[in-house]
Specification:
By secondary structure, the protein is of the alpha/beta class. It has three domains: 32 residues; 213 residues, Rossmann fold; 171 residues, 2-Layer Sandwich (Nucleotidyltransferase, domain 5), CATH 3.30.420.280. Helix content is 36%, strand content 19%. It is built from 15 helices and 15 strands. The strands form two sheets. An eight-stranded mixed β-sheet has the order 3-4-5-2-6-7-1-8, with helices on both faces. Strands 9-15-12-11-10-13-14 form a seven-stranded mixed β-sheet. Strand 4 and strand 5 form a beta hairpin. Helix 2 crosses helix 3 and helix 12 packs across helix 14. The radius of gyration is 31 Å and the shape is globular. It starts with a helix and ends with a helix.
């Protein structure tokens, strides 16, 4: 009897295990047929992919290393838009393009990713450039018609940059996804395609071509609708950490910059190659007890740059704000500087005047001027000190010493100071030992200030409980003696 029970138990256990295997296979098949439902499913969450999807800007770019997850988020964005189920945007039937460099790259990368997230029952029609519509993965797709949740359809078109700008004309679109960096004329043409629908552009790319138009027109743009993010191997939770370190150790620094971190390769001849992403930080309220200063590089037809600078208790310098404009007179600049200073709560003297460092040339008087630039600013409530060391070579070396620091950077720039960031990234040497006199106004203002050798503020020391108690007892004793 006992043997019969054990035999029955073993048989039941075997039956349950067989059933469990079948269920797991069914779940795996269901998961493969609906990858979208499991995208960024905990615990493996790619935070930077989610940041890309959540961003409300109309021109979003992810600069990522190979295998960092950048193409994945671009494909999901397209499928969400086509299905009308984007979790962070207003949904509607859409028409958009996926732009690849060549037809072959389209087939092997972006097209394959998009198809992997589209369940077969969501596809209403597939029109092919080559290959079979019944097996679109093996051919080149022209466009896919997708059933959306509104009971109608959306359309995903696929374009190749090799076909030339003319093939990008005429359409009116809700979005364009650039998978890798397009030629500038294709990018400009695609911008025109989304204008009338107030559509969006987004790109996912590894910047292997250096400082191209993407760097100048997108990454360095001060357009409030442009958003950029860097994505690297360590951001991808699906990559093995040991493999990341092994591969990183085998690659040179330049290759790592682009292939792992997705950073733009720096061209030779930069004045400040030390300046990097680690120097650009999110803004924060500047404590009142820090040292505060303004520094101005004046200009009339050329831009005038004014920087708001602060020094913390450790002597670290922060560029907290900037004013940058060309073609305006001193009245206009002084008014804007006072307005921004009031907004920031910048300290003034007893008479309500601001104090600033300025280019020594501001003290020069010409035959056509009634007053110097320094005097004009002074009469408008900004007392300027032109007694600064303007030696370019010494100043550049001083800036470099703050950027690299013996124990880490001693200079940070708030992300909102877009002109300062752009200039420090692109300021280049000309002939000999002289930098090119172009786009250097914020860089000059920074140099004037750092050459004053700014001192850390003398912060009040915090007394211990024992020290405060001794002080209280001493005062009490003094009062008793005085009676």
């Amino acid at each position: 009897m006992k043997e019969k029970r054990e035999e029955d138990f073993a048989s039941e256990e075997k039956r349950l295990l067989s059933r469990l295997v079948r269920v797991e296979r069914m779940l795996d098949a269901a998961r493969k047929n609906n990858r979208l439902a499991h995208y960024n499913e905990p615990p493996l969450v790619h935070e930077k992919q989610l940041a890309f999807h959540r961003c409300p800007k109309r021109n979003r770019w992810v600069f990522g290393g190979n295998r960092s997850g950048k193409t994945e988020c671009g494909a999901v964005e397209v499928v969400w838009r086509a299905r009308g189920i984007h979790p962070y945007r207003e949904n509607k039937p859409t028409e958009g393009w996926v732009v690849s460099l060549t037809r072959e790259v389209q087939r092997d990368v972006a097209q394959r990713k998009v198809l992997s997230y589209l369940k077969k029952e969501w596809i209403a029609d597939v029109v092919m450039v080559s290959g079979k519509a019944s097996q679109p993965e093996g051919g080149v797709v022209d466009y896919i018609v997708v059933h959306n949740v509104f009971g109608s359809t959306s359309r995903i078109g696929f374009k190749s940059c090799e076909s030339g700008r003319e093939k990008f004309q005429g359409a009116s679109l809700d979005y364009v996804w650039f998978d890798e960096e397009p030629p500038e004329d294709v990018y400009d043409e695609c911008r025109m395609r989304v204008v009338d629908r107030r559509g969006e552009l987004f790109g996912t790319m590894t910047p292997l071509k250096g400082l191209t138009f993407v760097y100048d027109k997108i990454y360095m743009s001060d357009d409030p609708e442009v958003w950029c993010e860097f994505m690297e191997w360590a951001d991808n939770p699906y990559l093995d950490r040991g493999e990341i370190e092994r591969l990183s150790a085998s690659l040179g620094d330049d290759v790592l910059e682009s292939r792992r971190y997705g950073r733009f390769l720096k061209r030779s001849g930069l004045v400040y190659p030390e300046f990097g992403e680690e120097h650009v930080i999110d803004p924060f309220p500047v404590p009142a007890e820090w040292t505060h200063a303004l520094s101005i590089d004046p200009g009339l037809n050329n831009p005038l740059a004014c920087l708001w600078l602060a020094v913390d208790g450790d002597g670290v310098v922060y560029v907290a704000a900037e004013h940058y404009a060309a073609g305006k007179d001193v009245d206009w600049h002084a008014a804007r500087i006072r307005e921004k200073s009031a907004e920031l709560g910048w300290p003034t003297d007893r008479c309500g005047r601001l104090r600033a460092y300025i280019d020594p040339a501001a003290n020069q008087r010409t035959l056509s001027s009634v007053a110097t630039v320094s005097e004009l600013f002074g009469s408008r409530g900004i007392l300027v000190d032109a007694n600064v060391n303007k030696d370019v070579y010494a100043g550049i070396n001083t800036v470099k010493s703050y950027l690299k620091g013996e124990h880490g950077p001693r200079l940070y720039v708030f992300r909102s100071c877009v002109h300062t960031v752009r200039e420090l990234r692109t300021y280049a040497w000309g002939e000999g030992d002289s930098p090119v006199k172009k786009n250097d106004h914020c860089a000059d203002a920074l140099r004037y200030f750092l050459m004053t050798r700014p001192q850390a503020p003398r912060l009040p020391s915090v007394k211990t409980v024992i020290e405060r108690d001794k002080e209280r007892l001493a005062k009490a004793a003094m009062r008793r003696r005085g009676r």
